[in-house]
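forwarding from the other thread:

> can someone predict this with S-adenosylmethionine?

sure thing
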Amino acid sequence: METVQLERQHERRHVIKNELRWHEEEAHRRQRLDELLYKAPAFDDIVEDQLAFLDPAHSHLLLEIGSGTGKETLILSRRGHTVYTIDLSYVQIAAAKAQVLNNHASANVVWVQANAEELPFADGVFDAVYGKAILHHLDLDLAADEVKRVLRDAGRASFAEPLAGHPLIWLGRRVTPHLRTRDEHPLKWNELTAFATQFDALPVKYFYILAPLAYFLRLVPGLARTFNLFWHVLRHVDQKLLDFLPFLRQLAWYGVVSLRKPLR
Ligand SMILES: C[S@@+](CC[C@H](N)C(=O)[O-])C[C@H]1O[C@@H](n2cnc3c(N)ncnc32)[C@H](O)[C@@H]1O
């Protein structure tokens, strides 16, 4: 391993320690916010896009990075991937494991507590890597090096990440700093693009400009179906806006990158 990479990993150890402590001791505070933001059908189109790129036919052995409470671990296993899933925090892994095994006792998942910047796997072992809302916790260069290292040649990776430019989400973050770790940061759109250029990448896809307005309906009890309808309509409007006015991508809330490990 290169000395620069080893030094950077070493420099990052105090950040990783803080991330671990926060996710073991404070992440439970986010539960209600996570339900508000991520409960289906919100984010279904992002996850579907990621899953379509990681078709189990060519991505059998899959590494999920930063599984959190396992929102997608079960889906990945049900689709026929053999899933190795890592998270820094054993509290998060335990929650994910309980959730997955309650729903699918024979799920094909291996649970590993590990740091995504120093993966405990040999070179080239995985067909695919999946991550959602994880890169913004990591050093992007270390993460790219590790993802490339553990992927086989032409192996695929997909990441969906929060971006920094959405005004409403920006405001939400400003008023709730205690619901986030000190070192995480939503990515600037050019940071996500720079990460993607370290691979053979498809163009970055952007999601959600107006759709987050629907969350106001989710705050009102009894309006679940109205929320679903508004979310559905607004996310379609968003896709049209982003197709016809590409400069609006700087305001999008999420970016999705679809990557292939370059052939040597
Ligand atoms: C925002 S949550 C996302 C969880 C899940 N992917 C989702 O979409 O709900 C980020 C997760 O990454 C984990 N994490 C943070 N830093 C990490 C690191 N260096 N290595 C592995 N996991 C990490 C945290 O413990 C947390 O469970």
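The two ends are 17 Å apart (CA to CA). thats all i got for now
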